[in-house]
Each structure stands twice: as structure tokens, then as C-alpha cells.
Design a protein that fits this description.
The chain has 273 residues and is mainly beta. It has one helix at residues 215-227; strands at 7-8, 34-43, 51-57, 73-78, 83-89, 94-97, 107-114, 117-124, 136-141, 147-155, 163-169, 177-182, 190-197, 205-213, 247-248, 257-271. The longest helix has 13 residues, at 215-227.
């Protein structure tokens, strides 16, 4: 089944409030839990040698900041035994590697040692097709026929089952819009994708990013969409915890949020006419 669901990079919730008074509700706050942002993205045409993993913790609902996590030992190892070390920029929670070697189809294992516990995850770097040069613009697009809409294309690989993540940003959206899709109904086809926004204007720069992702990451993102209320079905979702592919080998119940992802990425800019 084709799944195409638009979500925001962050769940904004009810951020646009028309009331003048702000009501603050006392909420229970769970103990902080580790959050691992381990997205290894290899943009086509770049060496891909510099990569970043970010560690933080969950925090209270009303907190404006996400606490960073320092002091971790982070390595990523490929199947040939080459070890890539991620070193923290002091006191930032950002761990940088400058000699990473990305290879499509290669399998990598991440190991994070923090506070005497070891977290691991394994994933394969997945290929992505090119975004075609031709991008079409319709000034009477969108659901109501009153928005600027662009259509871009990519050629699906007929020899494989493929899963995709789309990330589209424009100056008219506070956060990039994300969507996921498989190729069940577009196997081997030149496939169109659409983006529209009611506030787009001539001169706006739209950035399109197409990621090749694994089936497991596709399922993870789909669960996030449903859990966050981004699903468009008639029944509201039941709030739930969505766990990724990172396992705490020392204490299974003290799991971390996040996912270890490796993806080839194609990117293209389009200026609204």
C-alpha cells in the first residue's frame, strides 16, 4: 500500500493560540531519557566524510531547551572492521567524525558507551535515485486549486523494493515537511511527487531532499506519524512510545529514543516562478 503522509520535523501541536491568556497546566514529568540523533546522510556529489551524532535527553513539556549529553564514547564500524570515532565538540552534545567512509550497501554498527551502559545499533547505507532536472509548477494547484504547487520526479529502481523519505523546506514553513513512501504501486516507474503551500510566492527557494531508507526505518517513521497524530484516518491514535533500532545492551529497560540511520541523499533547489 502506498503511504504518503506529510508531517513536520517537530510536532508543533497547538502552537497557534488565538486566546490572549496562556494557560499553564501542571504536568507530570518522567525521568529524563537519552535521545540519540544518529542520522548518517551521504549527499550525492560530496565526500560524506564529515558526519555528526547528537546526544540529548528528554525534558519537561514547557522547557524551551533540550539538555545536551557529554562524556560519551561513540564509534561506528563497517563490515571490514574500519572504526570511525565520533569526538564531542566540548559541552555541546555534538559528536563529529571527519574521516567517515560512506559506501552504498555497506553495513555499519554504532556503539555508544555512556555512564557505564552500552547502546548498539546496526544499519545498512541505502541508495537513492536522482531527482530529475525537470520540475513543473502549477499556480492553480493544491487541494483547493488556489496554491502554487510543484511536481518533481525520480526513477524508481525496478530491480529492488525501495523505500523513500522526502524532506522539503521553504521560507514559508517554520519546519521542513517530511513524507515517506514505498514503491509498491510505482515499481520501476518514473514517479511524480508533489509539494504545495498556500503562501508560496515567486522568488521563494524550495529545497527538495530525497533519501533512500531501509524498510525498518520506513516502518519506524510510519509508527511515529501515527503516534504523533499525523495519520489521516478516521480514528484518533492512542499515544504510545515508538522505539527505534538502538538497543541498550546493559539495561534493556533503560532504552534510548532515536534511530541509527544511514542514507544516500539527492538534493535539488527550485525557485518559484
Amino acid at each position: 500500500m502506498k503511504i504518503y503522509k506529510m508531517i513536520l520535523l517537530l510536532i508543533i501541536g497547538s502552537s497557534m493560540i488565538s486566546c490572549e491568556d496562556v494557560i499553564t497546566v501542571d504536568l507530570d514529568t518522567a525521568a529524563p531519557r537519552l535521545v540519540i540523533d544518529a542520522s548518517i546522510d551521504w549527499v550525492k556529489g560530496t565526500p560524506g566524510n564529515e558526519q555528526k551524532i547528537v546526544l540529548s535527553t528528554t525534558t519537561g513539556y514547557y522547557s524551551p531547551d533540550f539538555p545536551t549529553v557529554s562524556g560519551a564514547n561513540i564509534t561506528v564500524t563497517n563490515s571490514a572492521g574500519n572504526v570511525f570515532t565520533f569526538t564531542e565538540t566540548p559541552e555541546t552534545g555534538e559528536y563529529i567524525c571527519t574521516n567517515f567512509i560512506p559506501v552504498v550497501g555497506e553495513t555499519y554498527q554504532m556503539v555508544i558507551i555512556l555512564n557505564g551502559e552500552t547502546y548498539t545499533a546496526t544499519e545498512t547505507l541505502t541508495a537513492t535515485p536522482n531527482i530529475e532536472e525537470t520540475i513543473e509548477q502549477d499556480n492553480e494547484g493544491g487541494m483547493g486549486g488556489d496554491e502554487i504547487e510543484i511536481t518533481f520526479y525520480y526513477q524508481d529502481d525496478p530491480a529492488a523494493t525501495n523505500y523513500y523519505l522526502f524532506n522539503i523546506s521553504s521560507p514559508r514553513s517554520a519546519f521542513p515537511e517530511l513524507s515517506i513512501e514505498d514503491d509498491e504501486n510505482s515499481q520501476g516507474n518514473m514517479t511524480p511527487e508533489y509539494y504545495s503551500h498556500e503562501d508560496l510566492k515567486p522568488g521563494d527557494l524550495v529545497n527538495i531532499r530525497l533519501y533512500g531508507i531501509s524498510e525498518r526505518y520506513y516502518q519506524y517513521m510510519n509508527k511515529l506519524i501515527i503516534a504523533s497524530g499525523g495519520d489521516t484516518g478516521p480514528w484518533p491514535p492512542t499515544p504510545s512510545v515508538v522505539r527505534g533500532n538502538i538497543v541498550n545492551q546493559s539495561n534493556f529497560n533503560n532504552f534510548a529514543f532515536g534511530y541509527f540511520r544511514l542514507a544516500e541523499v539527492d538534493t535539488r533547489d527550485y525557485v518559484i516562478q
